[in-house]
Automatic annotation (TrEMBL):
Superkingdom assignment: Bacteria
Protein's UniProt name: Uncharacterized protein
Organism per entry: Pedobacter ginsengiterrae
């Protein structure tokens, strides 16, 4: 009896985690406002979102930069003009409002979770988005996504995706990088809490 109870508990935990990930995918790719950056440089925002059907690992430095004391005013002053520094390009918590919501321990937890992510097959389909096997047939933008990362208390979710501009069948160009943050609301599911994106020039 105990054995069956444990099996059911494990199944329910797995199902709950899987369902939450599916919901984050749905919220992310059905929301056209998440793709506004694709209109930069005179481009037209795609009406249909094509996502490569294998996830990309979540870049751990989004959450934590090892060996850099970001509480030091001297360190921040030294890197403020270095536009190529990871602090300016990938680190999420340079935003003061977002930073105030997470302790250093939570940031390290998220970074550790991100390091564990591996490429994974996904199958997504909605009214304006779907997964595809190859990018060669796409003439405009296509996207590669991470799987969602959840905070330790399961109150926040992060998902990262990259936009590519396909210039020819043999060439792909990084165009932009976006991280969307969701917060769980009592009895109302997940709600977008923030978005951080940048052009990759």
């Amino acid at each position: 009896m105990l054995r069956y109870s444990l099996i059911i508990l494990i199944f329910l935990c797995f199902k709950n985690g899987y369902g939450q990930s599916e919901e984050i995918y749905r919220l992310t790719f059905s929301d056209k406002s998440n793709f506004k950056i694709t209109t930069a440089l005179g481009n037209k925002q795609p009406s249909q979102i094509y996502i490569i059907n294998t996830t990309e690992p979540f870049y751990s430095k989004r959450f934590w930069l090892d060996g850099i004391n970001l509480k030091s005013a001297k360190v921040l002053d030294e890197i403020k003009d270095d536009e190529h520094h990871l602090y300016h390009n990938v680190y999420l918590f340079k935003d003061e409002k977002l930073n105030s919501k997470f302790s250093d321990e939570e940031k390290k937890y998220l970074s550790a979770k991100a390091k564990l992510t591996k490429p994974k097959k996904i199958n997504l389909k909605g009214t304006n988005y779907s997964t595809i096997k190859l990018s060669s047939e796409i003439k405009t933008f296509y996207f590669k996504t991470s799987e969602p990362i959840f905070s330790n208390d399961r109150q926040y979710a992060f998902i990262n995706f990259t936009a590519f501009s396909s210039k020819s069948k043999n060439e792909e160009n990084y165009f932009s990088d976006t991280c969307v943050i969701y917060k769980r609301t009592n009895g109302k599911g997940w709600k977008k809490s923030g978005i951080v994106d940048r052009l990759i020039l």
